[in-house]
Specification:
Length: 223
Amino acid sequence: TPILSLRRLSRRFGGTLAVDDVSLDIAAGEIHGLIGPSGCGKSTLLRMIAGFENLDAGEIRLSDERIDGIAPERRGIGIVFQDYALFPHMTVAGNLQFAMKATPRSERPARLASLLAMVKLEGLEQRFPDQLSGGQQQRVALARTFAAAPRLVLLDEPFSNLDAELRETARDEIRGVLKATGLSILLVTHDREEALTFCDRISVMKDGRIRQTGTPTLVYDRP
Ligand code: ADP
Ligand code: ADP
């Protein structure tokens, strides 16, 4: 069974059908990209899955459990938005520990060490965000999301505020980290090149609908 299952989701704003009858399944461990022009409904769809936007119609299941109607913080979904929003006055360790409220105090040091190893930031735990590269900051943001032990992670244009050179390195680093976690990822991107190199499968949205879903090469080889 898929980890995430979207069935006939719709969301209207006035006269605009922002999301129009969208169905999609995402498998365990899959990195799935959502691409399409600005205004096609990508962010709205992500917010519906996260629980920040109501559904007008449809169902969302996570590991076969119905989650629409459940509060965002209880869905088991981790989210990393464009601006990673690390706390600038806290070290890497502080940022990660902040997300470990649910972890018993005695288990936090070991958990912190394993998160740092996962994103390959060992030795940097006493640095502040402005002492890290953009790619390193992005990995701290990911680690903070993993700290909450999510079942699915949503990324909204995760590389958009990195410069072009850094973006390629960060992309490779982060793809490796994500694949190692075995988590399922749904990410929004504007960038075809990024979708092609980063994702296992992609869905192309237009005017609120998913027009195509497939492997990147399949989608891009079609006219
Ligand atoms: P994308 O993320 O692909 O750029 P969005 O999901 O942000 O697209 O927007 C889809 C459509 O829904 C757009 O026409 C946008 O203007 C509209 N929209 C999104 N959010 C709102 C809102 N809160 N109120 C009114 N219209 C909205
Ligand atoms: P993105 O480009 O990342 O999709 P947008 O700039 O479209 O983001 O939207 C940013 C915020 O503005 C979102 O919270 C969205 O709901 C809201 N929004 C987008 N379009 C409209 C709109 N036409 N009317 C009201 N709010 C909107």
